[in-house]
Amino acid sequence: MRLSTWNILHGRIQGQSRFQAEAEALSSCVAQLDADILALQEVDHLYPRSGCVNQTQLAAKALGTEYWAFAPAFFIYGAGEDHQREPSGSTDIITKENPTDRGGYGIAIVSKIPVIQWERLELTQAKFGKIMNISEGAKSKRFYAKDHHRVALAGHCEKFIVINLHLSFVWPFNYLQFLQVKGWANDLAKRADKPVFIMGDFNLSSGVSGRKWRSLVKGLTFPIWKPDRQIDYILTTRRIQVQKETLTAFDTSDHLAVSVEIDL
User: Fold this and answer.
1) Of 16, 37, 38, 60, which has the fewest beta carbons less than 10 angstroms from its beta carbon?
2) What count of other Cβ atoms lies within 10 Å of the Cβ of residue 119?
C-alpha cells in the first residue's frame, strides 16, 4: 500500500513550469504520486483564485477513484479580492454524496481503498498570528499572517484509519493541536481496534516522532527550492516495515510530497 501526503499550495504553479493550466498540473502530479491513500493540504474548493475547481474531485479523477472527502476550514462568500471568510461547521464534510456549491479552503483525503466513514475534528485556533518570511527562489517578502480555523479529517477503511491534518504555523498552538489529534487518534484506534496513520503538514520540525508515534519517513520537505526542515510526516504506532520512501518535488507547490510503501 502506498501512502502519500502533500501540501499542494492550492495548486499554484511556482515560477517556470511545463504546465500552462493549474488544474492540468495538479492532475498530472497526483497521477505521478499514484497513491492508494492521498492526504492533501491547502486545498481549494470552487475557489475563484484556482479557477473555481473542485480540486479534491480533480485529484480523485487523476487516481481513478470515487472515494474522496474535503473538510473545509472555512467557506468564502463575495466575489473577487473582496470575498470574506465564513467559518465552517463541525459536520461539514464534502463528498461525492454530499456536494456543495460553496467555495472553500481546507484539507482532503482521496482513497483508492473504500472508505466506510468520514469524521472531522475541530482544533484549537491560534489566538494571534506571526511575521512570516516567504521565499520563492531568490525572492523574499515579510508580512504579518493571521491564522485561520484548523481541522483534522479521518477516513475509516476496513483494516485501518487515516487522519489528515494541517496544523497552525503559530507556536505553541500547532503543538497543542498535534496533542489534540494524537488523543483523537488513540481513541479511534482503541474503539476500532485498527492501526491509525496520521499524515499531513504539521508545521513542526521537532517533537513529532517519539516512542509511541513514529515517523515512517525522514527527510527535509520544505521549502522545495532549498529544503532545510521536515514538517510533513506520516506517523503510526504500529511496527510496520517500510518497503520504500520517496520525497517528490513538483513545480506546483512549496512542499515536497512525502510517500511510503508499506505492507499492512
Assistant:
1) 16
2) 17
pLDDT, averaged per 10 consecutive residues of the chain (264 residues), comes to 96 59 89 98 93 95 98 87 83 97 97 98 92 67 87 98 98 97 98 97 94 95 94 96 95 94 92
Q: Contact at 8 Å (CB) between 121 and 66?
A: no
CA nearest neighbour of 166 among 257, 41, 26, 52 = 41
Q: What is the dihedral of CA 206, 9, 66, 193, to 10 degrees?
A: 10
Between CA 222 and CA 227 the distance in angstroms is 5
pLDDT at residue 98, as a whole number: 97
- Report the relative pairing of strands 139-145 and 150-156 from DSSP bridges: unpaired
Q: Three cell numbers at 120? A: 472531522
DSSP tag of 239: -
Amino acid identity at 68: W
User: Which residue shows C-alpha cell 498535534?
Assistant: 178
Domains belonging to the chain, first-starting first, are: 2-262 (3.60.10.10)
